[in-house]
Amino acid sequence: MTYYQQEVHRLQSALYPHAHQRRQVLVARQFIEQHYAEAIGLLEMAEAACCSKFHFLRLFRQYYGRTPHQYLTALRLRQARRRLLGGAPVAEACQAVGFDSVTSFTGLFRRTYGCPPRALAARRR
């Protein structure tokens, strides 16, 4: 390796100390956004990032300030809200974004948005 290559490497390391980790987390986030409607867990997300699930959990929380599960749940709720505003029935919106139980979805939706999903769906009609 030449002196200039070493200097470029040193400067890149100083400017972007965690570029590889950032790429891992971005790849995992893209995986979550593409597969949010499926039954994905921490193991699948970590495999997408090519690291252990515990290391991935720490990295994701470090970069996004929340766990991968919290990110996935928030994404599913946003997508369900979008579907409800588009006129979809509650059960259909719930199932389409990856929630298994309409009851737990309704409670989570109410805590997040301050109203039950059926009220949002009714407002749309």
Automatic annotation (TrEMBL):
Single GO MF annotation: DNA-binding transcription factor activity
Record-annotated HTH araC/xylS-type domain positions: 26-123
Any Pfam family hit: HTH_18
InterPro entries linked: AraC_XylS_family_regulators, Homeodomain-like_sf, HTH_AraC, HTH_AraC-typ_CS
Keywords: DNA-binding, Transcription, Transcription regulation
Keyword rRNA-binding appears in the UniProt entry: no
Official protein name in the record: Helix-turn-helix transcriptional regulator
UniProt organism field: Hymenobacter jeollabukensis
